[in-house]
Amino acid sequence: MNLFLELRRHGRLADKRHPMYEKNRFGRFWMYLMAVFWAGYLIFFGTIFALAFDGGSVEPYHVLNSGLVFVLALDFLIRFPFQKTPTQEVKPYLLLPIKKHKLIDCLLVRSGLSGFNFIWLFLFVPFAIITVTKFYGLWGVLCYCIGIWLLMLFNNYWFLLFRTLLGEHIWWVLLPVAIYGGLTLGMFLPEESPVFDWFRDLGEGFITSNIWVFLSLIASIALMWFIDSRVIRRTIYNELNKTEDSTVRVKNLSEYKFLDRYGQVGEYMRLELKLMLRNKMCRKSLISCLCIVVAFSLIVAFTDIYGAGMNNFLMIYNYAIFALLFFSTLLGYEGNYMDGLMSRRESLRSLLTAKYRLYTIALLLPFVLMLPAVFMGKITLLQNTAWMFFTAGLSYCCFFQVAVYNNQTVDLNAKMTARRNAGTGLQSIMGGASFAIPLALYYPLTLAFGDTVAYTTLLILGLGFMLTSRLWIGNVYRRLMKRRYKNMEGFRDSRQR
């Protein structure tokens, strides 16, 4: 217990002494505001579900319990952008006379006590108060909520295991695909789904305070804890001992000679390609982007589970995913060698231009992947083209503003032992704006003039920002140079020691 409290105190002190602490204040305020918003949203849905499911042939809590598998799957997906594997800086503690397994266990305890594991209670508590109290009273509500929390705790440790394994090799992505794919087959292939029945009985066990149900779930959590502890410990030791360095080989060396014709901009495009394709962390991020784009493109083209509004959201996500992953920390990777970049005249301007051109070309991939949806009549060619050009124009212009204020280095190698990189307030705003701005422009235009005028307007806006990219990239560069000494100090301070 003393070790856990001491690590928490060290973590708070590290946050306050971090060079990005002042900038993160607005980001934390924004996150707290969004947490309050979603809590209210979940309370609203919990109340609506309780009233909507009432009056049927089965009790409302039986209906919701049957769908717990969907809640767990959604919870698993939501954790990706918000929850990382434990990134406490363990390196200094490994040199101290502390039992290493206790150190890892403290990280797992901190993860288990995270507020993220309690967020779903805002949905289930009002639902249980309305539906469960009629038959089981407040004791049934209490047991039900404890069971739901234990279920989310299990999901938390399962997610940590997957994220840790995914950091080791991209092929581990097949593990959740196989598990959730098997659950999907179990739900929809048989006439009477055993999956729905099992989760209904599980929820019933929570409400009736069945001791065997709780003991089985606690044993499953303990088993997942043990597996997480062993896997995370091995991963951290391998990273600190650099055991992967002797096995890494670059099989194909391409110099991208076709970029020579573009001069200095071509050189930085070559540098960016080598960074993305040869560095292990960047390559995995790129592969993750491709998997998401392919999955969403297939959903838009070959399913009818979403309407036109959701299809627009998926298309925006398809185009914005590259910016969200690589532009939200713009120049963060270059922070490792920013002193060298500053030694050459206008090298940063060429670097920004190279990044813009390269990631604009990358938007052709989601454009091509969504053409089957165009041919099948799910979306229009104008719609697909408008979102591509709008992203390459206005959205990219907004994201490039992060380069002026970002002064936090993103480590190219460390995963488990890296510093906790909390984004600045501007990065948080840009992440939300990448979805809010397109939709805020699209819906009023659609209501006023129709889809054709709305998409044409978005297309013209995007083209306008693309054709004037030299102007706004030049503006970003000039503002960046005015802050260069402050930014360089931040890059140096935030580098991994």
Protein structure class:
mainly alpha
- Unreliable segments of 5+ consecutive residues: 245-251, 416-423
How much of the sequence lies in strands comes to under 5%
Total helix count?
Answer: 23
CA gyration radius, whole angstroms: 25 Å
Helices and strands, in order, run as: HHHHHHHHHHHHHHHHHHHHHHH
Mean pLDDT score: 79
Instruction: Compute the separation of the termini in Å.
Output: 29 Å
Helix % is: over 70%
Q: What is the makeup of the main sheet? A: none
| Total domains | 2
Write the layout of secondary structure elements.
Blueprint: H1 2-17, H2 21-52, H3 60-66, H4 68-82, H5 100-112, H6 121-131, H7 133-168, H8 174-188, H9 194-207, H10 211-240, H11 263-278, H12 280-302, H13 308-327, H14 338-342, H15 347-362, H16 364-369, H17 371-375, H18 381-400, H19 402-405, H20 425-449, H21 451-467, H22 469-482, H23 484-493
Helix pairs in contact: 2-6, 2-20, 3-9, 4-7, 5-10, 6-7, 7-9, 7-10, 11-12, 11-15, 12-13, 13-18, 13-20, 15-22, 18-20, 18-21, 20-21
Q: Can you give a write-up of this model?
A:
With 497 residues, the chain is mostly helical. The chain has two domains: 2-240, no CATH class; 268-493, no CATH class. 74% of the residues lie in helices and 0% in strands. It contains 23 helices and no strands. It has helices at residues 2-17, 21-52, 60-66, 68-82, 100-112, 121-131, 133-168, 174-188, 194-207, 211-240, 263-278, 280-302, 308-327, 338-342, 347-362, 364-369, 371-375, 381-400, 402-405, 425-449, 451-467, 469-482, 484-493. Helix 5 (100-112) crosses helix 10 (211-240), helix 13 packs parallel to helix 18 (381-400) and helix 20 packs across helix 21 (451-467). The radius of gyration is 25 Å and the shape is globular. The relative contact order is 0.09. Residues 245-251 and 416-423 have low confidence and may be disordered.
